[in-house]
C-alpha cells in the first residue's frame, strides 16, 4: 500500500507533513511518497530516523497557496505538489492521496483528474464529528451548495459505505437533517429526499433535528453542502466561544484559578475524547480514487491518521462499494421505470 | 399599555404565567390581561399580592395542547386562550400578545387573525442568541422553510427594526449567513439575496460564516427558516452536550469534584450572561400587531421579560416601522422598474 502525501500542503509544511509521514510508516504497514520540492523535502528528511525503504520522494516544483482559486490553480500550476500527488493515484503509482493544503484546490484537482465514480452525480465531503457516545459522519460538509433530492440519496449511500469501513459497523444508522422528526417536516428538498432514503437499502432511521445530532442516535447525518458547512462551522465556533467565555468567568471568581487547575485533567480527557483529528481529515467521496483533505492546521498525528484512514478506505474498497451500490439503484430505476 | 398573556400556555401554566404577569406589573408601567379559564386563573390569583387594577382576567374556555396542529387548532378551538389573546390585540383591547403555548399554533393564529403587514410577503421569527460580546438576532428562526431572495431582504429589514428597538442601537450590523465572506460564496439563494441586501438602506456588513456568528461581529444574522431552525437547535444541542461530557469527565478525575465546586460561581456567571430568557421569547415579525412566542419551559422571569419586550416593541412601533420601510422599497422598485 502506497500513499501519496502532498508534503508542501498545510500551515506547517513540510516539517509537519514529514513528521506525520514518519509516524505513519513507523506504525503501520504502508509506504508514503512525499510529493514536493525535492531539495527541501530531502533536506528536511536528512536527520530523521524512519524505516528504510518506506518513504520515497517525488518531485513537484510548484506549491499552491492557501488563497488561490481552484480554477486558476488547475490551469496554471500543473506541477504543484497537490496535483502531482493526485496524478500518482491516477497513474496507479499510489493507492490514495492526502493533502492538508488548499482544500478547494485539492477537491477540484482530485475531481478533475480522477473523475466522478460511475453513477455518482455529485461527489461530497464526509466529515467526522464527535457525539455524546462516539463519532458521527456529516455528509455533505461543503462540496455542493445547491442539491437535488437524488443527490442526498447518493450522499447517504456514500456516507454509509464510509462509516462502515472506518468504524467497522455493519449497519450504520443513517438520518436526514431536518426541522422535525416526522416525514412531513422539512423543506422541499428534505421532504422529497426522505422518500428516496426510505426506499433505499440502508438503515434509514428518519429525520434528525439539529438539537439531536450530538446525541449519538445517528451514525451518518445527511444534508446539502451549504447546511453541512454551516453546521460544521457553527459547531466549531460555538465550542470555541463557550471555552473563551468560561475561561473569562473563571479567572474572575476568587477560587476560579485554583478550581480550574483541579479540573484541568478532566478538560484534557474531554478534549482527547472529542478530538476528531483522530480521523485526520475528510475524504471527497464519489470520485475514482481515494483522496483525503486534511485541515491546514493539522498536527503530525492528524496527518498520520489521515494516511491511515486513506489506507483503510483503499483496503475496504470504499469507492468501489459506492459505485456498485449506486449502480444497483440505477439498474433498479431502469427496470421499474 | 395592555398586554394579553395566554395564561394557559406553557409547560408550567397557569402558575408560571401568572407569576410572570405579577412580576411584570410590579416592575413595569403596564397592565396584563390574563387570558384563560376564569375559574382556574382567579383561583390561582387569589392569594397573590400585586398592584391592584394592573391585572385583569379574560375568560377562554379551551386550551390548545402542545401536540395539536395549527390548522386543526384554528378550525376547532375557537375559544382557546391563545386565540382569545390574539383577538384582544385584533380588537384593540390589548396592545400585544404573549404565549408560551404551542408555538406553531400561536404563530399561525396570530398570522391568521392579524394578517401580514403591508408589503411583507413572509412573516418571520426573530430569535435572540448570546455572543462573545452580547446578543445577536437570528432571523428567520423557523417560520419559512423555503425562501426567495426577496424574503431574505424583508427578514433583514424586520430584524434591523427589531434589534434597534430592543437594544437601542441606531445602526445594527446586519449580516447574511453563508459559507464564505466573499459575495461570490453561497448557494443560489444567498448569492442573489446578497445583491438585495447590499442595495438596501441598512448597515449591511456582508456574509458571515457559521464559525463567526458567536463572535459578536454582527447584530442581525439573516437566513432562511430551515437553516435558522437548524442553527438554533444545533447550538442548543451542542451546548448541552459539551456540559454533559465535561461533567462526566470532571467526576472521573481525582480532584474534579472539588475543582468543580470552586469554579461553580464562574459557571453561574457564565449562565447568567448567556441567559437569553432575558429576552423572554421570539416575536413573529411582519404581522399587523405584536405577538411574542415564548418557550414552553419559560420561567416566570422569561414570561416577565417577554411581556416587557412586547411593550417595548409596541412603544417603539416596530411593526409600523417594518411596514413603512418595506413600503419605501416597493415604491422605489416601482419608480425604477
Q: Order of strands in the sheet with the most strands of chain A?
A: 3-2-1-4-11-10-5-6-9-7-8
Please indicate the count of domains of chain A.
2
Binned strand content of chain A? 15-25%
Poorly predicted runs of chain A are none
What is the tally of helical segments of chain A?
Answer: 11
The greatest interface here is: A-B, 59 and 59 residues
The second-level CATH architecture of the largest domain in chain A is 3-Layer(aba) Sandwich
Quaternary: homodimer
Helical fraction of chain A: 40-55%
CATH superfamily of the largest domain in chain A: Isopropylmalate Dehydrogenase
CATH class of the largest domain in chain A: Alpha Beta
**Major beta sheet of chain A, specifics?**
11 strands, mixed
- Overall average pLDDT of chain A: 93
N-to-C SSE string of chain A, H for helix and E for strand: EHEHEHHEHEEHEHEEHHEEHH
Structural class of chain A: alpha/beta
Number of strands of chain A: 11
Rg estimate of chain A, integer Å: 21 Å
Provide an overview of this structure:
2 copies of one chain form a homodimer. With 337 residues, chain A is α/β, with parallel strands linked by helices. Chain A folds into 2 domains: 1-120 and 286-319 and 326-337, Isopropylmalate Dehydrogenase, CATH 3.40.718; 127-279, 3-Layer(aba) Sandwich (Isopropylmalate Dehydrogenase), CATH 3.40.718. Chain A has helices spanning 15-27, 38-45, 70-76, 81-90, 103-114, 149-167, 188-199, 225-250, 256-273, 300-315, 318-336, and strands at residues 2-6, 31-36, 55-59, 96-99, 124-130, 135-139, 173-178, 203-209, 220-222, 282-285, 290-293. In chain A, helix 4 runs parallel beside helix 5. The longest helix of chain A has 26 residues, at 225-250. Chain A is globular. The first copy, chain A, starts with a strand and ends with a helix. Chains A and B meet through helix 8 and helix 9 of A and helix 8 and helix 9 of B.
Amino acid at each position: 500500500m502506497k500513499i501519496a502525501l502532498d508534503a508542501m500542503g498545510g500551515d506547517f509544511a513540510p516539517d509537519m507533513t514529514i513528521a506525520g509521514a514518519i509516524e505513519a510508516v513507523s506504525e503501520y504497514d504502508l509506504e508514503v511518497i512525499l510529493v514536493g520540492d525535492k531539495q527541501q523535502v530531502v533536506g528536511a528528511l536528512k536527520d530523521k530516523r524512519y524505516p528504510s525503504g518506506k518513504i520515497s520522494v517525488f518531485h513537484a516544483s510548484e506549491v499552491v497557496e492557501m488563497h488561490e482559486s481552484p480554477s486558476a490553480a488547475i490551469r496554471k500550476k500543473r506541477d504543484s505538489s497537490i496535483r502531482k500527488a493526485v496524478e500518482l493515484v491516477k497513474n496507479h503509482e499510489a493507492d490514495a492521496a492526502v493533502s492538508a493544503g488548499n482544500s478547494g484546490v485539492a477537491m477540484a484537482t482530485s475531481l478533475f483528474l480522477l473523475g466522478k465514480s460511475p453513477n455518482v452525480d455529485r461527489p461530497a465531503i464526509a466529515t467526522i464529528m464527535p457525539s455524546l457516545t462516539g463519532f458521527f459522519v456529516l455528509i455533505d460538509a461543503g462540496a455542493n451548495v445547491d442539491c437535488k433530492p437524488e443527490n442526498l440519496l447518493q450522499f447517504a449511500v456514500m456516507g454509509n459505505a464510509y462509516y462502515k469501513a472506518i468504524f467497522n459497523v455493519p449497519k450504520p444508522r443513517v438520518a436526514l437533517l431536518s426541522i422535525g422528526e416526522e416525514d412531513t417536516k422539512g423543506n422541499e428538498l428534505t421532504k422529497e429526499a426522505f422518500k428516496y432514503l426510505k426506499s433505499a437499502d440502508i438503515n434509514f432511521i428518519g429525520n434528525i433535528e439539529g438539537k439531536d445530532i450530538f446525541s449519538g442516535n445517528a451514525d451518518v447525518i445527511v444534508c446539502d453542502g451549504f447546511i453541512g458547512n454551516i453546521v460544521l462551522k457553527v459547531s466549531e465556533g460555538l465550542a470555541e466561544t463557550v471555552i473563551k467565555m468560561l475561561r473569562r468567568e473563571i479567572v474572575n471568581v476568587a477560587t476560579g484559578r485554583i478550581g480550574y487547575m483541579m479540573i484541568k485533567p478532566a478538560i484534557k480527557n474531554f478534549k482527547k475524547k472529542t478530538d476528531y483529528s483522530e480521523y485526520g481529515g475528510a475524504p471527497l467521496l464519489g470520485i475514482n480514487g481515494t483522496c483525503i483533505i486534511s485541515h491546514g492546521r493539522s498536527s503530525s498525528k492528524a496527518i498520520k491518521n489521515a494516511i491511515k484512514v486513506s489506507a483503510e478506505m483503499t483496503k475496504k474498497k470504499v469507492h468501489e462499494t459506492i459505485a456498485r451500490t449506486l449502480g444497483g439503484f440505477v439498474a433498479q430505476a431502469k427496470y421499474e421505470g
